[in-house]
Amino acid sequence: MDTRLRQLSHWASAQFLPAGQATLSVADFVSVSDDASFRRYFRCPKLDRAIVFMDAPPDKEPLQDFLAIGNALSAAGVPAPEFFAIDIETGFLALSDFGDRQLLGLVQDEPDAVLSILSEVTGLLNTVARVDCTLPVYSESMLRAEMDLFPTWYLTRLLGLTLTDAFWPVWQDVCDRLVASALAEPQVFVHRDFHSRNIMVPSKGGLALLDFQDAVRGPLSYDLVSLLKDCYIEYEPWMQQELVEDYRQAWLSDPQVRAMTPIAFFQTFERMGLQRHLKCAGIFSRLCLRDGKSRYLNDIPMVMKYVATVCQSQPEFRDFFQWLQAFVLPDPMGRSA
Fold it and tell me: Are the C-beta atoms of 278 and 307 separated by less than 8 Å?
């Protein structure tokens, strides 16, 4: 028996059914999605309202940050979910249902309109990045801890590599460079997962944003990387370059951005992408090995393609690229020929 879903059904009944009507049962709820966290989402077709119910176990996924950040986004005009009912102590939330169509499906279905679609999304990102609310700082220790997932979960546990003394100085140099670059950027609101599966396309039109509870104050280019170097879909390099420059133009009022040439800004974007994708390779490996979510292994080859491309193109990462060539590439899943 799914105890939490049974509790959720009783809570939803009390919140949304008229007095005296029979309570909802577990069978009345339909799973909406299964994401990378411990949260679960359900719909209840028996209700006459379009609502998504979130089950967020309070010991693993406390709701406070999600609620605070969601309210700040809405106040700034960002299309975030409306909250209809809240139970922080139990970890239940009823919120807006934006439907099932993600940005991922939209760009796949309309290949000739990808540039204009992404231009609209970068416009939304421009608004998101300027949201003013209290957030944790994307600190040096956090950036380094994220990158540590790469040798720990991807190289060692997934691929089974033994990392020798030759690896660690090369790795330390990569981390030092990426941290310095990230901390030198303008620090703004960072969603941290601003990608095609968290940006919804409601049937009424427009865009809507989900999964923002891990937001931090951090590098300007981070969410731009999440969007344009998406782990789930690949965009043409020329398109990335054009949209990165458009975004730089939108931020020329910031003196740090104004001082950067288009080439320098794009290189900063590339370094931020390297940090993110090293982290993602580690996270996807951990989701498989620790949490049993093996489908995320399918996304590692694209992530490692991004990593290899940046390391190959920037001389400062040449030693790391050579190490990757020797031990990881061309098959990032470690399969024998």
Answer: yes
